Amino acid sequence: MARVIPQLTPEQLAAFPSRAEARFYEACRDQLPRDVVVVYSANWIYRDARGKLTEGEADFTLLSPGAGVVIVEVKGGGVRFDPATGVWRSVDRHGQPHPIKDPFRQASGERHALLDQISGHTDWRQWTGGRFTIGHAVFFPDIGDATPLLGPDRQREMVGVNSDLREMARWYDGVMRFWRQPSDIPLGAKGVRLIEDILCRPIEVRPVLRAAVDDAERQRIRLTTNQAKTLRVLGGRRRAVISGGAGTGKTIIAVEKARQLAQSGLSVLLLCYNRPLAHWLAAGLVNQPSITALSYHQLCDLRVRQALTFGRDLMHEAAEAYPGAGDKHRFDVQMPFALALAADVVAERFDAIVVDEAQDFSDEYWFGVELQLRDQAAGHFYIFIDENQALYPRRGALPVEGEPFQLTVNCRNTSAIHVAGYRFYKGALIDEPELHGPEVIWTSARTRDAQADAVARRVHQWVQIEGIDTQDVTVLIAARPKALGYELLLARSESAGAKLAVEDHAARRAVLVDTVGRFKGLESQAVVLWVGDEVVDEALWETVYVGLTRAKSLLAVVGSERALDQIRRNTP
């Protein structure tokens, strides 16, 4: 007895609108071998090679480990075919003819469509074999003689009639022999299972994570709007420090303050430390010509290039004044000095400066930044800071005096993500958000390869199963060397079920893979954080804090059992 999908009761079969299909169903179920899978009424929608959206349906799809696949179109009642016109008609019980589609052309189209659907499905990448047998046939349960139906494209082996219902196994074997090519290989149990999964994967009706993410985002917008009240509290103050933990809306408020200043006719420099964040800010302010959004070192590069037009090579002068080698010396010493020198060469100034990520600015940085103000005594200067996100070993005295304004509501993370991340926060109490969402997923694996596998599986689950957009998913690496992490993940892009874009924030329809340090100041709906043992061994809790709090709605953490245990249980 074959396995039939779906399994129908006698009552359900009796209620079939097509008695012909019910009889064929029963014959296949009762007479075909046990290893044959019979799928009734398989439907699919796919894009063909030309990008055209195509909908397909087959009356019956028969799958066999040894024989292959056959599509069977079942037609009840009588049938007439006029070779002169090529018109097919069905004949009802009253003898009335009704035009119908050519059933053989219909079955052939279904065969090609099914092959496209199978070969184009991501699950079919698991198939390591070659060409398998796939054919089509048409079955007429109410017709006694096949001879009038035969033709050059309608061979006897492709046609089933009433007498074949009693010899279904023999008829099925004949169909498969007809379609088999010498080079075809058996599907085997794996091939049958893959096609069955593609056509008949069980559906669990539950709220998808995509819906949860969208609902959280609607609530998040309301919370962020409430945070904007801070702007009214600042009032007419020309200088202020605004402090808050991750997700308290610092960047959003900084951007809004820059817009307000620009609308009042002021030229504004919106500055941050991370270049990816600077690119994101600039892209969002492209229609605001009065606002210049740059990272600190982009500002240095700009001033150095401008000074060259006046005949001054400021980087050469900085290297002579502070000789030394290496990127760290160049970025932390020579470039800040060149920026300060530029004030004597480049006349451009700004009426207002807004700085995000101020915790990463040193005294050397601040000196050159202050010189960018047109009026250093009375110019507008706003600094946004979170001391807990200081990933770089530099501290500077802020150029703005006074107690900071505190942001105390987390409007980015869900409550579960907040609890996980804020264990590493030290400062003014930040209220737990009223954003409910899924629990944080913790996945441990012993080796780097096994951890990379776990990351790829999580991406696949979110993108392919849960329906999260690829551009809403980010993989953050907090492990050294980062190049090894990138290499291991890129080798698993196929199993991840998504294109992986390493450090490419502009990539479309791709999952971003980056380091925690480079992603600081940014956020993503869903984050997979990959933590190396060295992070907990060296107590780099700022990195852990930043990595955990980048996720807005979904967070998964991957690492060794020891690393995850330290993050979850130990007090930093």
Which helices and strands, and how do they pair?
Layout: E1 3-5, H1 10-14, H2 19-31, E2 37-47, E3 53-64, E4 68-74, E5 78-82, E6 87-91, E7 97-100, H3 103-120, E8 134-140, E9 159-161, H4 168-179, H5 188-200, H6 209-227, H7 229-234, E10 239-244, H8 250-263, E11 268-272, H9 275-284, E12 291-295, H10 296-308, H11 314-321, H12 327-342, E13 352-355, H13 363-370, E14 380-385, E15 405-407, H14 415-421, E16 441-444, H15 448-465, E17 473-478, H16 482-490, H17 493-496, E18 500-502, E19 511-515, H18 516-519, E20 524-531, H19 533-537, H20 541-548, E21 551-559, H21 561-569
Parallel strand pairs: 1-2, 4-8, 8-9, 10-14, 10-15, 11-12, 11-13, 13-14, 16-21, 17-19, 17-20, 18-19, 20-21
Antiparallel strand pairs: 2-3, 3-4, 5-6, 6-7
Shape: elongated
Rg is 33 Å
- What is the end-to-end distance? 63 Å
Class based on secondary structure composition and strand pairing = alpha/beta
Total beta strand runs? 21
How are the strands of the largest sheet arranged?
1-2-3-4-8-9
Unreliable stretches (pLDDT < 50, length at least 5) are: 203-208
The level of helicity is 25-40%
How much strand content do the residues show? 15-25%
Number of helices in the DSSP assignment: 21
Largest sheet: 6 strands, mixed
pLDDT averaged residue by residue? 87
Write up what this structure looks like:
The model is unreliable at 203-208 (pLDDT under 50). The strands form four sheets. Strands 1-2-3-4-8-9 form a six-stranded mixed β-sheet. A six-stranded parallel β-sheet has the order 12-11-13-14-10-15. It has 572 residues and is α/β, with parallel strands linked by helices.
